[in-house]
């Protein structure tokens, strides 16, 4: 291919970045202050963007405002945890009334933690559940439980899988900060049944297979029903546990994506929005397996965490799931997401933009070649165009849409169809404006 389209893309990106710098002096200043206390001015790597991140000041309803006063439709949705939006009255009332009538930390078991646990069990079809503070912790405890239950050590995961801050497997390898790095075996392609089953059957000392039913951080790539069922069966054939990481995906169907796909995991991990906007994680599953955490049983595992049953999160997580994200609301939100994805696909036909995902979660990819279906990150490796991805991010900001730089959209309940149509129109204008560099 001639270098002209790349030169044009570079010129467009340089110009967009220059406008970004000119439009956001207060965010830039805040970044320059923050580097004095935080490495790189950051305490959550994902949120770092070059030349500097936007600093948000406020969220209201479906919108966020940055320090420089620009308003954006919130399509980041706190990477799925922000499902309830910024101003839900039930969440507000529950937070205040818990503070007033219960208090913050009782240092004891409470009725409320049982209520939330029972609701989670019945909604997500689990026999027993335990709480934690993050999805990372949920996975950590689930893996410890699986190792204890099976008296084995190894865990199979998939390239592109993300199971938390210290359990990340990009490009077929455990990231350098992975805990118990040598205990993981990474299958080099998600959705590849033969490769996965072979690996499961040939890995000695296998305690568990840990998988997302749709890879989230890995690009919103759904697992096929056949693939997920095959690895579940193969895990059981070799006496290993099948652990489904639903930290992102439990919101995609009324009882979670695993139930929707007919899976029967031994354990499920969850988190994000299920704390109603506060820090939360949970892991649950079969009674027999979860009994490894029963303190009445001699030799059981300890599971500690000062904030595991924090009064605010137990109350707000419960009320929000019971009264706001009802099964009906879940179906409606995900249908809204499917309609959005269909419209986005239509307005970008014949271009380098590809949308993946399911329901209310959407992955945005920029790929130089026509790829029929993206079944795993490896399908588009070496074909991705980061320059176009960055250009899209800068220009969507200018249009008033807050998306993640890496190309991920998570809808929140408060966003309506009219606002989403505005996003589709903006994407349409983007591809028109850059027809020469965006065409396949
Ligand atoms: C599938 C999956 N598992 C686990 C986690 C970790 O959750 P947390 O960020 O709450 O630790 C995430 C976070 O994005 C996730 O997407």
Automatic annotation (TrEMBL):
Domain of life: Eukaryota
UniProtKB keywords: Pyridoxal phosphate, Transferase
GO terms of molecular function: pyridoxal phosphate binding; transaminase activity
Cofactor(s) demanded: pyridoxal 5'-phosphate
InterPro entries per record: Aminotrans_3 (IPR005814), PyrdxlP-dep_Trfase (IPR015424), PyrdxlP-dep_Trfase_major (IPR015421), PyrdxlP-dep_Trfase_small (IPR015422)
Pfam families, alphabetized: Aminotran_3
Family label: Belongs to the class-III pyridoxal-phosphate-dependent aminotransferase family.
Protein name in the entry: Pyridoxal phosphate-dependent transferase
């Amino acid at each position: 291919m001639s270098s002209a389209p790349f030169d044009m893309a570079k010129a467009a990106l340089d110009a967009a970045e220059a406008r970004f710098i000119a439009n956001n002096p207060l965010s830039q200043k805040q970044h320059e202050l923050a580097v004095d206390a935080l490495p790189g001015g950051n305490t959550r790597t994902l949120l770092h963007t070059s030349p500097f991140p936007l600093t948000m000041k406020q969220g209201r309803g479906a919108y966020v405002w940055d320090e420089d006063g620009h308003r954006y439709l919130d399509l980041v949705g706190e990477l799925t945890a922000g499902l309830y939006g910024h101003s839900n009255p039930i969440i507000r009332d529950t937070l205040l009334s818990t503070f007033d009538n219960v208090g913050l930390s009782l240092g004891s078991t409470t009725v409320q933690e049982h209520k939330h646990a029972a609701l989670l069990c019945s909604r997500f079809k689990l026999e027993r559940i335990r709480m934690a503070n993050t999805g990372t912790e949920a996975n950590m405890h689930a893996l410890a439980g699986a190792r204890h239950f099976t008296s084995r050590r190894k865990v199979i995961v998939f390239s592109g899988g993300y199971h938390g801050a210290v359990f990340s497997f990009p490009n077929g390898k455990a990231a350098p900060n992975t805990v118990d790095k040598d205990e993981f075996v990474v299958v080099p392609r998600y959705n590849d049944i033969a490769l996965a089953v072979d690996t499961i059957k040939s890995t000695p000392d296998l305690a568990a297979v840990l998988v997302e039913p749709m890879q989230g951080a890995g690009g919103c790539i759904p697992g096929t029903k056949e693939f997920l069922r095959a690895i579940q069966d193969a895990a059981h054939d070799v006496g290993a546990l099948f652990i489904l990481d639903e930290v992102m995906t439990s919101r995609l169907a009324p009882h979670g994506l695993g139930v929707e796909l007919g899976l029967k995991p031994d354990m499920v991990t969850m988190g994000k929005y299920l704390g109603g906007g506060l820090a939360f994680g949970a892991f649950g599953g079969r009674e027999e397996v979860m009994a490894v955490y029963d303190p009445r049983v001699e030799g059981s595992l300890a599971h500690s965490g000062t904030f595991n049953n924090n009064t605010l999160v137990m109350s707000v997580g419960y009320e929000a799931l019971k009264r706001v994200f009802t099964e009906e609301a879940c179906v409606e939100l995900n249908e809204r997401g499917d309609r959005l994805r269909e419209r986005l696909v239509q307005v970008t036909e014949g271009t380098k933009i590809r949308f993946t995902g399911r329901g209310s979660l959407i992955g945005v990819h920029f790929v130089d070649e026509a790829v029929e279906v993206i079944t795993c990150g490896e399908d588009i490796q070496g074909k991705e165009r980061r320059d176009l991805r960055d250009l899209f991010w800068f220009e969507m900001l200018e249009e008033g849409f807050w998306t993640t730089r890496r190309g991920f959209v998570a809808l929140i309940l408060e966003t309506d169809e009219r606002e989403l149509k505005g996003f589709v129109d903006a994407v349409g204008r983007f591809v028109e404006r850059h027809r020469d560099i965006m065409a396949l």
